């Protein structure tokens, strides 16, 4: 019985924890304190629910308990001589100090406030003052409801490392007095870009793991999609948010087809498209339509989503509209030029106009220092060389790519491709 109750608590916490932390953070103006008080509410649930049963509205129960803990904290601070005005509290917190009955914490009338609170929490957790690693860890902890152990396991690093990142991140935000608010004016675009970057970094680590034995970590990819959907609900007018959601939905639709029964990678052109998730494809295409309907120039995520949509719409690999994909990469190179974009453009150009055309772009990237240890540069070059019948050169490129790969499954794939080049020569 207790096991079932604990599972229910874990499920509710994963769904509700971000809202609870966000609301308490607005009251206390301190993310570290807010997380501790939210954890107190979780401990209270673990104490009461096994004895009393799961309440009818478990999210409201946790929210109410967390806010009561916050009020106790604020009263304690006030008793220590701090003036309420100096705490910078909002009207709700001031009223709650006088009228402590707020059982209707999740009434429909409060849902807009909850959305505002979540936006504040997302923008604070992803503040550019923090390192990329710290932003990722803090976001997964506060908004994903993941434990430190779960984050460490997902990223294959010691739990103590993740714990230190989170502690330092909260300390940095506190010491820098980062305001707990949604940025306005010219700061908004830069800060939103930081939020989207964090979510997409989480997704990419789940979609193609940088290290370890498994090629994918689907739980991380799914968590990123959940965070993206949450952001789209509370920021519906942001085109790039819908673009990122579209991109992640469309790429997620291929997860089941990306590996075989032994966990070995299956490249896009070889995948069984019958195993693609067509519900996710429909969701991704709908999100892309929303991004396009908001007008303006498509951003980096919407453009990548448009590329993914070309693959999703093609019944077979042979029917893929590679010329459109090449044109979209041209547009992406204008919006966000980078060596990686050029590398991907080379693939598209090679498919649309022949391997020699793609190889010309690749060879121009050979001296780029940022790609020196990037396994996909020699991998793509090897593929283009193989299509040109230059098997010996292709083999050397695949072997070089395998040496650079940090993921065991990638090394296996690239080594196998090198072996195939030896067989093709004989």
UniProtKB/TrEMBL annotation:
SUPFAM superfamilies: Sigma2 domain of RNA polymerase sigma factors (SSF88946), Sigma3 and sigma4 domains of RNA polymerase sigma factors (SSF88659). InterPro entries: DUF6596, RNA_pol_sigma-70_dom, RNA_pol_sigma70_r2, RNA_pol_sigma70_r4_t2, RNA_pol_sigma_r2, RNA_pol_sigma_r3/r4-like, WH-like_DNA-bd_sf. GO terms for molecular function: DNA binding; sigma factor activity. Residues 122-173 form the RNA polymerase sigma factor 70 region 4 type domain. Residues 20-78 form the RNA polymerase sigma-70 region domain. GO terms for biological process: DNA-templated transcription initiation. Pfam families: DUF6596 (PF20239), Sigma70_r2 (PF04542), Sigma70_r4_2 (PF08281). Residues 191-291 form the DUF6596 domain. PANTHER family: BLL0085 PROTEIN, BLL6612 PROTEIN-RELATED. NCBIfam families: sigma70-ECF (TIGR02937). This is RNA polymerase sigma factor. It comes from Caenimonas sedimenti.
